[in-house]
Design brief:
It is a single chain. The protein is an alpha+beta fold. The protein has 2 domains: about 1-115, Nucleic acid-binding proteins (OB fold (Dihydrolipoamide Acetyltransferase, E2P)), CATH 2.40.50.140; about 125-300, Hypothetical protein af1432 (Orthogonal Bundle), CATH 1.10.3210. Helices cover about 40% and strands about 20% of the residues. It contains 11 helices and 10 strands. It has helices at about 1-10, 115, 125-135, 140-155, 175-195, 200-210, 215, 230-235, 235-250, 255-270, 285-310; strands at about 20, 30-45, 50-60, 65-70, 80-90, 95-105, 215-220, 225-230, 315-320, 325. β2 (about 30-45) and β3 (about 50-60) form a beta hairpin. α5 runs antiparallel to α6 (about 200-210), α6 crosses α10 (about 255-270) and α6 (about 200-210) crosses α11. The longest helix has 25 residues, at about 285-310. The chain is elongated, with a radius of gyration of 23 Å. It starts with a helix and ends in a 9-residue tail after the last strand.
């Protein structure tokens, strides 16, 4: 405890320009930041000269920032833990980076909790769940209604907080509900534009397509994913989703083509084998589901990039977006 006290005395000797407890999204080049952040990942690496350093990704509710600590004697903090850091904000390859000069683990009496730092969906889980339930209420296809309700029942309470991913799109508390409801809202416009589509089938595909993620990842009630499960690594959420679908169909006495159509929508919604789909979409509703999933995932990623990249600047290369650099437009008539 004496060591912690001395460290905090050092933390409190702030210099001009320090941003105390600023959010990640507010940081700018040359800021000095002091505050609490959540460890997404941390590892000790070796540079080309043989020197050791820490490479970390730290986050709060507003965004994530890459951090370097050049003191190679420091052990990497545990992923999912909270640390108090002080560092200088720099720019590297068009992206903000925090050069950490001090850090320590958060203590029990520190004025911070995990819930303060983890990103959350912009809507409440209760409201998003209600939107899904009201959508199912409008189904005219009774077998489809029974089947989707059974799959939601099996999803259980973890659906309320579960993220849609560990690091990519909708990696937030209630992210899976966020992803699903936004896709449903977009689907309504597609159904109106192409009335030959079976709207109930498309809506059902949207609701169930990612439920296998509940067995794919290990998430706590804050939506923080610590790792993938055994099934997640061996099978993935597409296969697990089909297994749960078949179990649900048997439980409610539904069989025939409706089950086969939904199975295909689950296994094809990634679109191509390179992205994990063993089959490409082979009927209209499956094709639309694939594009809805891709569109919503990319819009969420692009929104996150715009939140952390200044107007008029380019991001670093984004691997999940085909290794592109993303530009944040100024959106003003007089922009140069």
């Amino acid at each position: 405890m004496e060591q912690i006290r001395r460290q905090d005395e050092c933390f409190s000797n702030m210099i001009e320009g320090t941003k105390w407890m600023a959010t990640v999204s507010e940081l700018k080049t040359d800021d000095v930041f002091t505050g609490f952040l959540l460890v997404r990942s941390a590892e000790q690496r070796t540079n080309k000269n043989g020197g050791r350093y820490l490479d970390m990704n730290l986050t709060d509710r507003t965004g994530e920032i890459n951090c370097k600590m050049w003191d190679g004697t420091q052990a990497p903090p545990r992923a999912g833990s909270i640390i108090k850091v002080r560092g200088n904000v720099q720019e590297f390859n068009g992206r903000l980076q925090l050069r950490v000069v001090q850090m320590r683990p958060a203590q029990e009496n520190d004025p911070v909790s995990l819930g303060d730092l983890l990103p959350c969906a912009p809507d409440t889980p209760e409201h998003m769940r209600q939107y899904i339930e009201e959508t199912i209420d409008r189904f005219e296809w009774e077998d489809l209604k029974k089947l989707v309700r059974e799959m939601l029942r099996r999803a259980g309470p973890s659906l309320e907080w579960f993220p849609a991913a560990q690091r990519m799109h909708h990696a937030e508390r209630s992210g899976l509900l966020h992803h699903t409801t936004d896709m449903l809202k977009t689907a309504e416009h597609i159904i109106a534009a192409y009335p030959f589509l079976n709207g109930d089938l498309l809506r059902a595909g949207v609701i169930i397509h990612d439920l296998g993620k509940l067995q794919e990842m290990k998430s706590d009630e804050y939506g923080n994913v610590s790792d993938y499960t055994r099934d997640g690594l061996l099978l993935g959420h597409l296969v697990r989703g089909v297994v749960t679908l078949n179990e649900s169909a048997e439980a409610v006495g539904v069989s025939g083509e409706v089950v086969a159509l939904l199975e295909h929508m689950i296994i094809s919604h990634h679109g191509i084998p390179e992205y994990g789909s063993p089959r490409m979409p082979m009927f209209p509703e499956a094709e639309v589901l694939h594009w809805l999933d891709l569109l919503d995932a990319r819009m969420n990623e692009l929104q996150g990039i715009e939140n952390r990249v200044p107007e008029g600047a380019f991001s670093e290369r984004i691997a999940s977006l085909d290794n592109r650099r993303i530009y944040h437009p100024r959106y003003t008539p007089d922009a140069e």
